[in-house]
Design brief:
Length: 239
Amino acid sequence: MGRKWNNIKEKKASKDANTSRVYAKFGIEIYVAAKKGEPDPESNQALKFVLERAKTYNVPKAIIDRAIEKAKGSGDESYEELRYEGFGPSGSMIIVDALTNNVNRTAPVVRSAFTKCGGNMGVSGSVSYMFNATAVIGVEGKTVDEVLELMMEADVDVRDIVEEDEAVIVYAEPSAFQAVQDAFKQAGISEFTVAELTMLPQTYVTLPEDAQAQFERLIDLLEDSEDVQQVYHNVEFED
């Protein structure tokens, strides 16, 4: 199912390691989640989820606190959640999730990225039907059998539990995200290598070398947009 999750996450983390881009995007996401309800993660599940994700990307506490304080105070920016779907080179499929305070700015930027890199935008549902919304939670220091036992003891249904590199990754329905985390926390595990709600492709494609370069440029252009929060795709990169 998610055999390439760690490789994809490491590639993204490596690219973002020396930039503030990922932190800025988390700042917006935390602000939006905090504005939706109480700015307290104990009573706001959306905020709690974002903060758990932020921890796995080592987002500085100062950025988190600033976003929450802004939500508590006079921050009145209005953000809209948008999803774009499209096709990249050689049969690749891409989903783009955005948070924007200016729809008229975001759509042209996303469309331009596809056009410049040999792709094209699709209509709603043209790509997403080939992906499954999935909760992905990873831990270190446990075996697959030990994690399976923890999930069974907590009566949590999961799709799959696999070992990837040095971590054990649990794949589950999005609605089970909190239950999986709670099962780990009850066992004394509070640090996660990954804690995401993501879109995983049902099948992967491998691109020829020239198309892969074009595809990577497309992903870079999309992720460079200040409004784009997540980019999901069905491309399997060669090791």
